[in-house]
Amino acid sequence: MLHDQRPYLCNFLGTIYENSSRQALMNILKKDGNDKLCWVSPREQWQPQETNESLKNYQDALLQSDLTLCPVGVNTECYRIYEACSYGSIPVVEDVMTAGSCGNTSVHHSAPLQLLKSMGAPFIFIKNWKELPAVLEKEKTIILQEKIERRKMLLQWYQHFKTELKMKFTNILESSFLMNSKI
C-alpha cells in the first residue's frame, strides 16, 4: 500500500499499563474522537505469545495506517518503531526516558533514542501525548502524493539505517577478533 490512500490516520495496538502514558494516550484519542479515525486495539495484559490472528491484525494495522503511535512501555525504545518503518507507517515516538538504565539525560544530551536521532530518523518525536491532536490535525491536511513521498523516504531511510548498523556491528566484531588474534 505504498501508493494507496490508507484508511486509518494512525494505529496503536498494545498493552495499557495503569497510570502510564499509554493510558493518557488512550484518553486523548477518545477525547477528540480520533480513536474513530485510528486503528486502536488496547489490551490490559501483555501477551507473551502472539497468535497468527493477532500478528495479522498488527501487520494490517501498520500497513493501513499513515502513522504508528509509539508510546513508551517498560523501555523507551521498542520493536514497534522498527516494524512501523518496515511498513512505511511514520512512527510517532514518545521522546521521554523510562526508569531503566538505557541512558542518562544528564550525560547523554540526546538521550533517549540517541541513535535514531543521530541518524536523522524521519519520525515525529513528541514529549507529551497532549501534542498528538495537533499532529493528527496536521496529518489530515497532507495530500496523498506527499504521504507517498514520505513513505518512500521512510523506507529508504530504514534500509540505510539497517545497512549502516550492520556495517558498524561487523566492523566492531572484525576489529575485536583481529585485535585478539594479534595478541
From TrEMBL:
Q: RXYLT1 C-terminal domain location, by residue?
A: 1-178
Any one GO cellular component localisation term in the record: Golgi apparatus
Stored Pfam families: RXYLT1_C
Listed InterPro entries: RXYLT1-like, RXYLT1_C
Source organism's superkingdom? Eukaryota
Instruction: Give me any GO biological process, just one.
Output: protein O-linked glycosylation via mannose
Query: What GO molecular function terms would the record report?
Result: ribitol beta-1,4-xylosyltransferase activity
- What's the protein here called? Ribitol-5-phosphate xylosyltransferase 1 isoform X3
